[in-house]
Design goal:
There is one protein chain. By secondary structure, the chain is of the alpha/beta class. It has 7 helices and 9 strands. A hairpin with a 2-residue loop joins strand 1 and strand 2. Helix 1 runs parallel beside helix 2 and helix 4 packs parallel to helix 7. It is globular and about 50 Å long. It starts with 9 loop residues before the first strand and ends with a helix. The relative contact order is 0.13.
Length: 212
Amino acid sequence: MKFKKLFEPIKVGKTLFRNRIFSSPQDIYRLTSENFLDDNATAFYEIKALGGFASVCVGDLMVDSRAGHSHPFQLRGDDVKGRGSLTRTANAIKRHGAVAAVELTHAGKNSNVMAKNEGFIYGLVDEVRQDGVEIRAMDDLWIERLIKCHADAALFAKQCGFEMITLHGGHGWLLAQFMSPRDNKRTDRWGGSLENRMRFPLAVVDAVRKAL
């Protein structure tokens, strides 16, 4: 075998994983009208755990339900009414020996649900998107609010029984927008140099660690 340790257990921090195969974050269109997981969605993740993954990650737990959704079929990570369905899903994953994980996400300037509901989106700089949607630059208070949103969502996920957090830093979502010199044209402490562009994602990491 090329990967001789693939099926061996591994310990990361205090958590023991039964092998080295982790299921990527995946969202599901099978949600309730309030954007919560239903029984079929829970079964979807449970089957992945039953199949032998060391970790099963529930995708797209949005940290800001007002201004962070890219499409309507995404979980709300700031709504306590979702605690029951998230707890049920985490327990279903762990029931079969897998570690329950969840992905925290914010779409940034791709927050199409906010564009539809309010006619504009908060982004890094003032601009107009190619489809004509107005993007308004976040001020310091809004940025600090988003850092707290990530920390609060992480704590909420832990309270629901999830044992690992994935921060979505790719695919052009909010964290990636701050890191990107193409997207981040800010001239304050949140943009410009690499150090400044990394300030927001590193602040999110620190806030999540402190919350947990």
